[in-house]
Specification:
The protein has one domain: Four Helix Bundle (Hemerythrin (Met), subunit A) (Up-down Bundle), CATH 1.20.120. The protein is 66% helix and 0% strand. It has helices spanning 18-25, 35-60, 64-81, 84-97, 110-138.
Length: 143
Amino acid sequence: SGDDGIMDIPGAKDKIDPTTFEQILEMDDDEEERDFSKSIVYDFFTQAESTFEKMDANLESKDLKTLSELGHFLKGSSATLGLTKVQASCEKIQHYGHKKDESGTKDITEEEGLSKLKTTIEQAKQEFREVEKVLKTFYHDES
């Protein structure tokens, strides 16, 4: 509908798929309060924070299998909201944890996997923080 203005917020354009996000907004009873979509979005914030903490811990212990699972998990929940950049980075995390290249086709060594995981997890965190800012602006949460 476009009157919601999420895509007018600076930084939203390349980070959020409007169609996917609009579908969640359509479930809101009240366009002022937006209780439903807001609760889904804020649950995702909590989920992402705790997933990144787990990723850091598993990077320390070099547990590639768990890192792949965590990437897969966060890929799913970011896809649900249409958070395209976070989703793409999480897909790479999933592949690297399986010791595959970013497309998931070629084999890479465990060492390469860990090195790529380290940088991609940092990238995913950064992308998450940027889209979190956009979403908080949308929900008038300037804290």
